[in-house]
Design goal:
alpha+beta, Beta Polymerase, domain 2, 3 helices
């Protein structure tokens, strides 16, 4: 499995995920490859607790995660909204950073 080029301290990530009712957070895409660069965004796959739908707060969650990553742009997506063409590959290759 590829190693992530980004690190968030475990305690910080755990607190962030619990506060936003995230049960699983994974990285995928260029953050796991040699093509990752200072200008690359970070692709993040999140699964929320079953009874929690963030709605418009998703943008706030994305912005807060960007701050935790030093201002790097974040592309936040849930499994339901993954593009069908890449869905299986993303789910197979995503690297879990936090799971309840």
């Amino acid at each position: 499995m590829a190693e992530s080029h980004i690190h968030i301290p475990k305690e910080t990530l755990t607190e962030f995920c619990r506060r936003h009712h995230i049960r699983k957070l994974s990285f995928f895409g260029s953050v796991l490859s040699d093509s990752f660069s200072p200008s690359s965004d970070v692709d993040v796959l999140v699964e929320f607790e079953p009874d929690h739908i963030p709605g418009l707060k998703l943008i706030q969650i994305q912005d807060e995660l960007s701050s935790l990553l030093g201002g790097r742009e974040v592309d936040l997506v849930t499994p339901k909204f993954l593009n069908r063409r890449i869905r299986e590959k993303v789910l197979r290759e995503a690297q879990v950073q936090y799971a309840q």
